[in-house]
């Protein structure tokens, strides 16, 4: 059913920027960012693991911050920058990719896109001095040791159990 102006009232017009490209779409207001990415835009890096925000396989960066795309509604990310694993660029992302390979952090690869996006966000948080639940001195720059990496990556699960390798890869990428 359409309104007087010929629009479907059950849909919302949105503009979403994904990996630098702007997309103007009409979506059901209940559409998650993950479903938009995978089903409408054919961006398949973020994976639908649990679809409940528990596994982290769908992690993307929203304005540079880590977000579980299965919990984010598309209407809430309008006019914001979404970066998926396909759009990660720069020295940090390249170092992370290289170290994930070198330290065998990929395993089956299902969780890897979310792990990489989360690791980029983690390293940015450290650079900005953002504390975690593990950070003892909230006034000091957090120390990036294995425990800090594990705490910050705890929202990203790996079915293969490659956690030790992922922690080593992130630590090596930081230098």
Helix content estimate: 25-40%
CATH fold type of the largest domain: DNA polymerase, domain 1
Name the shape in a single word.
Answer: elongated
Integer-rounded radius of gyration: 18 Å
CATH superfamily of the largest domain: [2Fe-2S]-binding domain
Major β-sheet annotation: 5 strands, mixed
The CATH class of the largest domain is Mainly Alpha
Q: Largest beta sheet: what is the strand line-up?
A: 2-1-5-3-4
How many structural domains in the coordinates? 2
- Overall mean pLDDT: 94
Structural class determined from secondary elements: alpha+beta
Weakly predicted, low-confidence segments: none
The proportion of strand residues reads 5-15%
CATH-scheme architecture of the largest domain:
Orthogonal Bundle
Q: Give me the count of strands.
A: 5
Q: Measure the end-to-end span.
A: 58 Å
Give the H and E element order.
Answer: EEHEEEHHHH
**DSSP helix count?**
5
General description of the model:
- With 175 residues, the protein is α+β, with helices and mostly antiparallel strands.
- It has 2 domains: 12-83, Ubiquitin-like (UB roll) (Roll), CATH 3.10.20; 91-173, [2Fe-2S]-binding domain (DNA polymerase, domain 1, Orthogonal Bundle).
- The chain is built from 5 helices and 5 strands, in the order ββαβββαααα.
- It has a 5-stranded mixed β-sheet, sandwiched between helices.
- A hairpin with a 2-residue loop joins strand 1 (12-18) and strand 2.
- Helix 2 crosses helix 3 (112-128) and helix 2 (90-102) crosses helix 5 (163-174).
- It is elongated.
């Amino acid at each position: 059913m359409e309104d007087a102006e010929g629009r479907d009232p059950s849909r919302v017009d949105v503009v979403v920027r994904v990996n630098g490209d702007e997309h103007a779409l009409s979506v059901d207001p209940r559409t998650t960012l993950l479903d938009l990415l995978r089903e409408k835009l054919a961006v398949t890096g973020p994976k639908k693991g649990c679809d409940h925000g528990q596994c982290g396989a769908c992690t993307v960066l929203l304005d540079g911050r880590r977000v579980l795309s299965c919990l984010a509604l598309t209407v809430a990310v309008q006019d914001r920058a979404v970066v998926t694993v396909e759009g990660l660029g720069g020295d940090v992302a390249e170092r992370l990719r290289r170290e994930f390979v070198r330290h065998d952090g990929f395993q089956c690869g299902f969780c890897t896109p979310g792990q990489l996006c989360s690791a980029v966000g983690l390293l940015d948080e450290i650079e900005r001095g953002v504390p975690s639940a593990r950070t003892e001195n909230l006034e000091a720059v957090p120390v990036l040791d294995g425990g800090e990496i594990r705490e910050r990556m705890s929202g990203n699960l790996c079915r293969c159990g490659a956690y030790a390798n992922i922690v080593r890869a992130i630590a090596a990428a930081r230098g």
